[in-house]
Amino acid sequence: MAVASVEMLQAVVEGAPSDWDAHRELGEAMLDAGNRDGGLRELEAAMLGFERENQLDAASSIADEIARVDPSSVKHHQKRVEYAFRMSDKHRLVDAYLELADALFRAEQPEKARVIYQRVLDLAPDDARAKAAIGALPEPPPPEPPPVPRGTVSSMARPSVAIDAPPAAAAAPTADDSFVNLGDWLREEEQPKDTRMVVAEEEPSGDEEADFADMLKKFKQGVAENVGEEDHQSHYDLGIAYKEMGLLDEAIAEFQKALRGADNHVRVYEAIGQCFMDKRQYQMAATLLGRALTEKGTTDDKLVGVLYLLARASEELERPDDALSFYQRVFVVDIQFRDVAERMNALERAAR
Fold first, then answer.
1. What does the pLDDT look like over 184-206, one tens digit per residue?
2. Closest residue by Cα to residue 340 from 305, 300, 316
3. Domains along the chain?
């Protein structure tokens, strides 16, 4: 009987792929028939379908069902938290947080579990389950000493400023490999059509600002001659270099060129948004970062940096409800991202 039911429901789903109730029924029938993977797949399809249609109560109910079948699935516990928050259901939110913390503890991530249990106590200070769980957790290890910085970025007026922009074929820079010496880059032996260029050696004039402005002018000329408009990766790398120098307008211009490429739009939107935040142009930052949310195929785990900046911009624009919503989405994905927990708590205290 279960097999016949599965076959019938599969025909219904094939004929109406947007019938999320049918997907849910099919998933439940597959589970009853012993097809765990197929059943969970159909339930998740139904959950995400209801979410897209803003039927959050139905989506949350399915997330509960998936979590019962697969209690170790952290991402579905995170979904339960997200839906409870979006529905402003405090009771459901506390329960979802507790289940998420339990799942993290079972996944041998006790420090993340501790943060979540503490979050429960922020919402419900007398929650006995959270208190008992925190008391049973091992003491956290002492913090590691901060790494010794490789170098610092000076102001625009100093020609000795060090930045890094890898050659065009290099991968996107990380926080540790985005520094090179601008003067060295300008003086490198000439290579055919890459991002390195040569200028005549000149003695410093004694005016640091003028020397740096002259070096920067030659640098830009070399970039224009050696980096093609379609070389989107090099324009992104140049944007990173300019940003590290504090040349935010130049960085934005390079990132905008990088945005014309087909790949990595989210990271470019985030980089431009950070530039506008640094310029204190918060509305521009919010508008630009909002475009990243519409990129196809993106999920909150890929958008976490964008969401954090949107929250910060919303705070500066005095939109606390929007800020709290964005911080919540960050928190669900990465509870230890920057200072997201502290900022959430501050906004909630201010709203009381």
1. 544 444 444 444 444 455 566 56
2. 305
3. 2-108 (1.25.40.10), 182-351 (1.25.40.10)
Residue closest to 137 by CA, chosen among 158, 108, 165, 159: 108
CA–CA separation, 305 and 289 (whole Å): 10
Q: Are 331 and 340 in contact (CB under 8 A)?
A: yes
| pLDDT-flagged residues of the chain (< 50) | 1, 149-183, 185-199
Non-local CB neighbours of 111 within 8 Å, separated by 6+ positions: 140, 336
The radius of gyration of the chain's CA atoms, rounded to the nearest angstrom, is 26
Residue 154 · residue 179 · CB < 8 Å: no
d(CA 130, CA 160) in angstroms, rounded, equals 54
Three-state secondary structure call for residue 195: coil
Contact 291, 326 (CB under 8 A): no
User: What's at 93, amino acid-wise?
Assistant: L
CA distance 283 to 248: 16
pTM of this prediction? 0.60
